[in-house]
Amino acid sequence: MKRFVLVLLLAGWAHAVPASSSLIGNVNGRTTVSLNGAWRTIVDPFDNGKSSRFFRNEKPRNRSDRVEYSFDASPVLNVPGDWNTQRESLLFYEGPVWYRREFTYHNLANTRVFVYFGAANYQASVYLNGEKLGEHEGGCTPFNLEATSLLRDGENFLIVEVSNVRRADAVPALKFDWWSYGGITRDVMLVEVPTTFIQDYSVQLERGSQHEIAGWVQFNGAVTTHEVTIQIPEAGVAFKALTEANGYARFRFDVNKLACGKRSASKCSPLLKLWSPDNPKLYRVIISGEGDSVADEIGFRSIEVQGAKILLNGKPIFLRGISMHEEAPFREGRAFSSEDAETLLGWVKDLGCNFVRFAHYPHNENEIRLADRMGLLVWSEIPVYWDIDWSNPATLENAEAQLRDMIARDHNRAAVILWSVSNETPVKPERLTFLTKLVQEARELDPTRLITSAMNHVDETAPDVRTLSDPLGEVVDVVGLNEYLGWYWGRPEEADKMQWKATWNKPLIISEFGGGAEYGRHGDADEIWTEEYQQNLYQHQLGMLERIPNLAGMSPWVLMDFRSPARMLPGVQDYHNRKGLISNRGQRKLAFYTLQKFYEKLAEEGK
Ligand code: GCU
Questions:
Q1: Which among 16, 180, 259, 509 is least surrounded, fewest beta carbons within 10 Å?
Q2: Which residue, judged by its Cα, is nearest atom 9 of ligand 1?
Q3: For the purposes of burial, counting CB atoms within 10 Å of the CB of 331, is it exposed (0-12), middle (13-18) or buried (19 or more)?
Q4: pLDDT single digits (tens) 73-103
Q5: CB atoms < 10 A from the CB of 446, how many?
Q6: Beta pairing, strands 465-468 & 499-502
Q7: Which residue blocks in 351-414 are alpha helix, DSSP H?
Q8: CA proximity to 38, closest of 122, 99, 115
Q9: pTM of this prediction?
């Protein structure tokens, strides 16, 4: 008979209080009303909507009344979904679009209601029944706005102005190698919670431990201290903590000690089965208190570094990975659905991967939760990409907010092991200051995971030696290196002699390498854009990577061809980056099988 272990823990454990995001954690574990579907839309290229008060949803009151816009008469766009691939005329559109959703709602007693957006690219202004609810910046992070006081009992209208206009002080800035898909690109829902509710929580293994669970619960609306219970029924554990006056409770306990009581550890089997790619075990965890309760599926695993090794559950692991964009297979456009995630991560598994790099922005929650269930380790990144406005405090604040929201949404996901603060950013002092702040904030927000960045600044320390010497390498836990030998410089064969060195005794991940090929274009291995050229490049690269002494992992660029405004070669690229191992029509190129065979070999070698 499993023994229920009840623990009363007083406040005051030594855990950092995170500067919290206002995000409601695990919305899918709450009572929600979906607002997905067809929304009326007005394309507003000259940004007139604000001055014309589109947010008022006005309609002519009589036949002489002049109203120069009409949502009722306007075409629809599907939500979730980008506008670029829904309407031919909007493929290249960069500007504001106004969305309207009318819905009926009946207010509930003792209930607060938030409007939750999975994402809206890039900037959104939200209005309910003609009143402003709030703003959000950042195209790939979720946000929620409280609507309780503005909701009507009956007919309501929600209006959202979304703009994907690029700015030099934004994150990302003006130049990036992916399509700036505009629109409400992920789910929208009403979230109903009690007056005092569980805003968010973290239930994870303490860093480096395999049986100590530590975390916190944050209530919203609380005015007094009160009890919160965290249960893991399958493990027979339930414990109580008391919140501080601000509704925040911290907790920590040793599962084994609780389960074993006075018996020696040797006589007691560990309660928790640890999450890993081979056994992605998730436990139902229930957090409840003050009349609210949220259930979640959480895996418990430890992740840490030891010299140049990455240890998962105390054992070295080699990350057999691939990089991917959040691009929908076959239909193109922003991926968002669980079907999209199943197709894309299914291909990642087919490659023989245990790791995936979600580039270059936080991907949708369907992908993250599926990685949790499939046993795929995840690198998640914010779009601090190439050169941005490093000395601008507003840009830093923006990047910090995106970092906070990325961590807030996914900090209970065992699959996520790496937070990346940037990709291919130029080495200069203001950049290092900026990124160092992000790294510190990430560590404070989440002491359980590893911090990384994809760098590309190397020194030619000898004809066949390249040394990664970017000072950012000093600050992160794991060093990512993007190298394009055989594509942007040198010939593929030069990889046979090339040596790569990193200044620090830290795990090194080759976070990108690769070359372009158009599916179905065949020729000799030195004929660019052919599948044979790409295959040849991979063969030489894989040989080179195997010779890098402290390589801890790799995520070649890239799983699937994706749209990019920076790729304009007619008949080959046609606004697509063709470095995919799979075409945007789902066709596998020769190099797909080259990498698949290589990963098969590594897996057999226990790597
Ligand atoms: C860069 C960058 C990617 C880009 C790739 C490429 O390294 O990180 O976003 O798509 O190279 O040039 O194809």
A1: 16
A2: 177
A3: exposed
A4: 999 999 999 999 999 999 999 999 999 999 9
A5: 23
A6: parallel
A7: 365-374, 393-410
A8: 99
A9: 0.95
Residue 352: pLDDT over 90: yes
> For the range 254-262, what are the long-range contacts, defined as Cβ-Cβ under 8 Å and sequence gap of 24 or more?
254/211, 254/212, 255/211, 255/212, 255/213, 256/211, 257/211, 258/5, 258/7, 259/3, 259/5, 259/235, 261/3
Q: Is 264 exposed, middle or buried (0-12, 13-18, 19+ CB in 10 A)?
A: exposed
Cβ–Cβ under 8 Å, residues 252 and 19: no
Count H helices, E strands: the chain?
7, 34
Pocket test for ligand 1, best of 385, 424, 559, 568 (most atoms within 8 A of CB): 424
The CA radius of gyration of the chain, in Å to the nearest whole number, is: 25
Q: Whose CA is nearest to atom 12 of ligand 1?
A: 177
Residue given tokens 């009326």 in the structure block: 40
- C-alpha–C-alpha distance, residues 185 and 162, integer Å: 10
Given a contact cutoff of 8 angstroms between Cβ atoms, the answer to whether 511 and 482 are in contact is yes
If you search the block for the tokens 């990302």, which residue do you land on? Answer: 172
**Nearest ligand 1 atom, CA 385:** 8
* Residue nearest atom 10 in ligand 1 by C-alpha distance: 177
Confidence band, pLDDT 50/70/90 cuts, at residue 563: very high
Alpha-helical runs (H) found in 134-181 = none
Average pLDDT value for residue range 281-305: 97
Q: Say how far apart CA 471 and CA 432 lie, in whole Å.
A: 8
Any idea what DSSP says for residue 274?
P
> pLDDT per residue over 394-412, tens digit each?
999 999 999 999 999 999 9
Q: Of the given ranges (175-184, 229-238, 280-289, 291-300), which has the lowest mean pLDDT?
A: 229-238
| Residue 35 to residue 117: CA distance in whole angstroms | 10
Q: How many CB atoms lie within 10 A of CB 104?
A: 9
- Res. 1 pLDDT band, cuts 50 70 90: very low
Specify whether the CB–CB gap between 305 and 504 falls below 8 A. Answer: no
Taking 60 as the threshold, does the pLDDT of residue 381 lie above it?
yes
Residue 3 clears pLDDT 90, i.e. is over it:
no
pLDDT for res 467: 95
Q: Give the position, in ligand 1's atom list, of the atom nearest the Cα of 516.
A: 13
Residue in 537, 557, 561 to alter for ligand 1 test, most ligand atoms within 8 A of Cβ:
557
> Is the peptide bond prior to 361 cis by the omega test (within 30 degrees of 0)?
no
**pLDDT attached to residue 265:** 54
